[in-house]
Amino acid sequence: MGGTTLNQNSLTDRLLTAAHTIWEGYLRHPFVRGLADGSLPVEKFRFYLLQDYVYLFDYAKVFAQGVVRAREPAVMRSFATYVSNILNGEMDIHRSYMKRLGITPAQAEHVAPSLDNLSYTAYMRAIAAEEGPAEIMAAVLSCALSYEHIAKWIVAHYPHAADHAFYGEWVQGYAADAYAAANDHLVALLEQLAAGYTQSQLAHLTEIFVNCSRYEARFWDMAWNGTV
């Protein structure tokens, strides 16, 4: 899945295998198919964009909690780097679309998150507040890797999607080599943090990842239905 090269016995492979059915559902979702073939109504994308924009602020806070929970300076720096990458990198895609749609950052920042959005971020933030760096990484990884997985699937099955006048920027951003490289670092960090974990602890990491994958599915449903 995605562009990450996995070892058959790696923890990340275990997580992806556990969530496989959920992730396959992303690729059949009408919102994703609309992104792929360019038929997605702009008003649906606008709703999604604003919900995802406010989601990313909480997503960044989960990474920031990793700085607090980490004990090793190198791990602290890794979490801190991703806070910056989200706020000053990934959100650039959103800001570009907001400019095209006539939405100011101030307007976007005052959007009320949907109930599904609140539930998802509350779950991740609870993990971040109560558990360790590996558990935090398991919580954030589903979002990061699934977007790469979706975008690369779109490119593979809809060759002209990346050139679409409107949705091409989204596809290009999440299918980019730089985005995949950042995900590779996340995967490596998770594997490092969970080294020596017991089977019970690994099962808990898997549960967190699968739960967040389920929340991702609900996020696409929310985006398609426009439900708050």
Order of helices and strands: HHHHHHHHHHH
Discrete helix count: 11
Largest sheet: none
What global shape is seen?
Answer: globular
**What's the pLDDT, averaged over the residues?**
94
Describe this structure as you would to a colleague:
The protein is mostly helical. Helices cover 79% and strands 0% of the residues. The chain is built from eleven helices and no strands. It has helices spanning 11-18, 20-28, 30-37, 42-69, 73-101, 105-109, 115-130, 133-157, 168-175, 177-193, 199-225. α4 packs antiparallel against α8 and α4 runs antiparallel to α11. The protein starts with 10 loop residues before the first helix and ends with a helix.
List keywords for this structure.
single chain; about 230 residues; mainly alpha; about 80% helix
SSE order and pairing:
Blueprint: H1 11-18, H2 20-28, H3 30-37, H4 42-69, H5 73-101, H6 105-109, H7 115-130, H8 133-157, H9 168-175, H10 177-193, H11 199-225
Helix pairs in contact: 1-11, 2-11, 3-8, 4-5, 4-7, 4-8, 4-11, 7-11, 8-9, 8-10, 8-11
